[in-house]
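User: Hi! Is it possible to get a structure for several chains at once, not just one? Here's what I have:
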Amino acid sequence: MMPGASRVHSLGVTVVLFAVCFGFRTELESDPVLHVIVQLPMLGWAGWLLADALSDRWGRSLFETYNTGGWAGLLVALVAIAFWMLPRSIDGALSSGEMELAKFISVPLLIGAPLRLSWRRAHPLLRGVLMANALSMLGVLAWLYTAAPVRICNSYLVGDQQRLGEAFIYVGVALAVVWCGRLFMGPSDPTAARSEIDLLGNKIS
Amino acid sequence: MRALIATLVVALIGGAVLWHATDGARAITAEGARRLYASEKKPLMLAVDLRDMSAATVPLEAPPGGVALVEFVYTSCPTICRSAGEAFWQLKQKLTAENLTHKAKLFSVSFDPEHDDREALAEYARNHRADGRIWNVAAPVAADLPRLLESYKVTVISDEFGGFEHNVAIHLIDDQGRLRGIFDIDDVPSVIEAVRKWR
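Assistant: Yes, the chains can be modeled jointly so their relative placement is included. Here is the combined structure:
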């Protein structure tokens, strides 16, 4: 259970994030770097915080039953991420009102919220696999967007596309540094510190 | 168990959504989708009259039983429209050499009618040796332009140098006014092959 004050705080930040993404959509979407590296993650974050504020109202037992280990929720998020990684989806969000609406709904509710409701349920090994995958995927995207000889999005200039590729590199490196850095800090969970854990997460001692 | 079923249901629905979103894993870009749409749906394109480099009004249409090959350009373009012009020149040469000129008409259509007046079109034609018979350089009236681009699903955006970027391709239109295929501008052999087989 979240204390009431921090629930209100989460809801407040959700509303602010969503309002900024929506209110400044013309500015944010005029540049692919702002669109993909700023607006989309902000929308996801809004969904994460929304789930944070509402999660126990949405039925803890329901998630215990259907989202054991976080598999179903993570898969929802991965499908939605894959969908919004398609260049034609980004083009669609710029050229069609329905797709734009779908973006504002699906990125918070089908990426941010399920990640929040599933990430902590997921096995540490699964989390590690997903994080490693995210880094390699950012690398692939960086290569694709910097090296593609053709325009990938019809709505953006080739030069902007290359800047987006470079931004993927920076994001990937930053995430790698943060995530690896945390490995060097040791386990943050005090109970985990007392026992060694093998690769499958089983306690050895 | 129920969690496993929930996961499988998500996997099935998710797979179907992504399959649909990529036209069966065949198009991940808007341009790829546009080309599939052309070859599978044979959509009817907007019929417009153009004003060409000699100020004559010409309909944007294929000769009976033949095809119209259409590319979109703007004459002040420093880069890619030049290669588009070059591709059309090669097309014209090959069509002439293979005696296919009765089956195809070439249109370089300007999407910048504001700047591309008769003189600009004529100069572009001179530079690229467009003769005006098989190959015409022309522009729609400004009022028709948005609907024309919408019909071809061509996106034109301004670049930082006062020019434009746009999807550059050769569009093949049949004599019913339907879009039947979209080719890369450097894929002249495939275009020739399509015209040769056209009946």
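The mean pLDDT of chain A is 89. The longest helix of chain A spans residues 158-185.

User: Great, thank you!
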